[in-house]
Design goal:
single chain, alpha/beta, 15% strand
């Protein structure tokens, strides 16, 4: 343990499982206290217990599309641990469908959670961080936002939007000492990706020069880099964690 985040408090949305949980787990190992925001409070509570309970981790039910929920999530961090040093906007959903069959509701839901949700998390965290003249915001985009994926006009648009949002916010917040960066994961092994039809999985694997899917902790280490002082002179950047896919 190197304690890269000693004494810092991090909020992670979508923190109960998958990439979000892997990030929270690594942050705790590196000395941070974390607050997990998730729609599923039961799962978030269980995850917080796994991360050491009230001393190091708290859970809060959070719908990131609701500004009031995000306010309450950040307030939980401030009340429990006294600061907000890192914000990871990770919460996400998919509603995959070709453009011809996608409903307006499926489009709106994905844009709301990924894009508006990340905007809420970024602006609310930035408002607190700017007062302290320091902070790191890490937004989780996707390689889908770089190349566009069949059946994902909603998701690809939202994840491309996260990049534009992150860069604009980085410019606004740089002179306040707050850094904003984004990560674009590729095919990462999770409950969501493992539910994919075999054919789709094989097709994606064929596009990866490193010849394997990534693991959630391989995204977490990059999030740690961006959250910590190791990346102190980086803002507005997009780091791809893809095994070389679509380079």
């Amino acid at each position: 343990m190197t304690d890269l985040l000693a004494g810092r408090t991090a909020v992670v949305t979508g923190g109960a499982q998958g990439i979000g949980f892997a990030i929270a787990e690594l942050f705790v190992k590196e000395g941070a206290r974390v607050v997990l925001g998730d729609l599923n409070l039961e799962a978030a509570d269980a995850a917080a217990r796994e991360l050491g309970g009230a001393e190091t981790a708290r859970a809060a039910r959070c719908d990131v599309t609701s500004a009031a929920d995000v306010d309450a999530l950040i307030e939980t961090a401030l009340e429990a641990f006294g600061s907000l040093d890192v914000m990871v906007n990770n919460a996400g959903i998919t509603r995959d469908s070709t453009m011809r069959t996608m409903t307006e509701e499926q489009f709106d839901q994905v844009i709301d959670v990924h894009l508006k949700g990340t905007w809420n998390g970024t602006r609310k965290a930035a408002a607190v961080m700017r007062e302290h003249k320091r902070g790191a915001i890490v937004n989780i985009s996707s390689v889908s936002g770089k190349v566009g994926m069949v059946g994902q006009t909603n998701y690809s648009a939202a994840k491309a939007g996260v990049v534009g949002l992150s860069k604009a916010a980085a410019k606004e917040m740089a002179h306040h000492g707050v850094r904003v960066n984004a990560i674009q994961p590729g095919l990462i092994r999770s409950a969501m990706t493992e539910a994919m039809p075999r054919k789709a999985w094989d097709q994606k694997m064929a596009e990866i020069p490193m010849g394997r899917a990534g693991e959630p902790d391989e995204v977490a280490t990059v999030a740690l880099f961006l959250a910590s002082d190791l990346s102190s002179y980086m803002t507005g950047t997009v780091l791809e964690v893809t095994g070389g896919r679509f380079m």
